[in-house]
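Memo to structure team: turn this sequence into structure tokens by end of day. - J.P.
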Amino acid sequence: MHVFDAAAVHAALDWPFLIEALRTAHRGAMPACEVVVQSDPAGGDAQFVTLPGWAPAGPIVVKMVGVFPQNARLQPPQPAVQGLVALFDGGTGGPLLVADGAAMTARKTAADSALGAAILARDDVEDLLIVGAGALAPHFAEAHMAARPSLRRVVIWNRTAARAEAVAAGLREKGIDAAASGDLDGAVARADVVSCVTMSDTALVKGALLRPGSHLDLVGAYLPTLREADDAALARGTIFVDSRNNIEGGGDLSQAVASGAITWDAVKADLFELVQGKAAGRTGADEITVFKNNGGAHLDLFTASALGQTLG
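Reply from structure team:
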């Protein structure tokens, strides 16, 4: 059995390889997946999530991960999401590998959105806005730039300006043209791709400001109480999701449905339908596309399988 620490995961799963591995995996059937969520029995905000997945005639994955929002306030800070991902042989049940959960989560989550952008964003996009400056922010910047090589500039916005500047500085060290902005509305109005990676419980992106032809990537609102974009953003855009599993669990779509801004029929397609050619993606240069990244154990399975391929 092979063990991958965080550095080994990031080294093995470069963005072009992982994005294409996810594209290939979506040509098959949805694996059998479950989600088991346990809340802190002491009454805190933390959760522990177990996500098993099993592909037909394929491997098995079990992701075991803690979600501890308060970790960002520790000294030194720790990732809010961390744990382990284990891959098993689907024929024998034998363990194949164990990998760092935070690194695997970062890779699979960013690559999921990047695949969405590769399919839905215009091929001439240049300006990327990352909303949020948590641990996932730099990964999303790099993944989107790998998916859409026309991207030239990255702007980071965060409620805490110093954190946005820290992420931008880290990207500049890698040769990326990146800057922090304190003007979210102005940054949204200028961006070709807007990627939201936050834990916000109030809408941040105003749909009225989205440029015609832009692509909006919504990642962080994984609970019904969370929200990253307002009703206008959902109503103006053509909506796609990574999978139709748990689409009612996130706040962006469920709150927009509850308000009457959209109906569930507004979800045009998921990645399986797009990759398999069962549904069309973008249909015009001025169309606004919205991609809701719901996550799921199937993506952990696809990512762990891709990591297993690197073993030879």
